[in-house]
Specification:
Layout: H1 3-9, E1 15-20, H2 28-32, E2 36-42, H3 51-60, E3 70-75, H4 81-100, H5 113-141
Antiparallel strand pairs: 1-2, 2-3
Length: 142
């Protein structure tokens, strides 16, 4: 899935933007200007995504999706509402691209000779350590 293709497919009319006051430092600007932007995108009701894509997104981004099916993106790092809106859209597309990418399947490989030797050495050391403990416990009982 190409990010550029996603940007062309998903209509901006499906986004719901809301602005509020940012939190944190920033002086008087933070106290009086609504610069924090929330982007909401309803995954379940989107016409731009196929059912398969919706399913992938709902599974992979379940922590960022509300019970109503809204994907919630918040941006408050910039000092202006417009910049935060653009950043929120950028975050949205990056998030969707990463969620829709298929992860390559892992190819099973056999352990290397060195790793096998290392594992056996660790087992020998551990076994000798336990043997020493057993012997010292027997000697203390006498």
């Amino acid at each position: 899935m190409n990010c550029e293709e996603l940007k062309k497919r998903i209509r901006v009319s499906e986004f719901i933007f809301s602005a509020s006051r940012s939190s944190g430092p920033g002086g008087q600007n933070v106290n009086k200007v609504n610069t924090k932007v929330e982007l909401r995108f309803n995954v379940k009701e989107s016409e731009s995504l196929s059912d398969e894509e919706k399913e992938k997104i709902l599974i992979r981004l379940k922590n960022k999706i509300t019970t109503k099916g809204d994907l919630l993106i918040i941006s408050q790092s910039a000092r202006t509402q417009l910049l935060n809106r653009l950043k929120a859209e950028e975050k949205f597309y990056k998030l969707l691209c990463s969620a829709l990418k298929d992860k390559p399947k892992r190819k099973a490989t056999s352990p290397t000779i060195a790793s096998s030797r290392e594992r056996l050495e660790k087992k020998k050391k551990r076994s000798s350590l336990k043997k020493l403990r057993k012997e010292s416990a027997l000697n203390n009982d006498d």
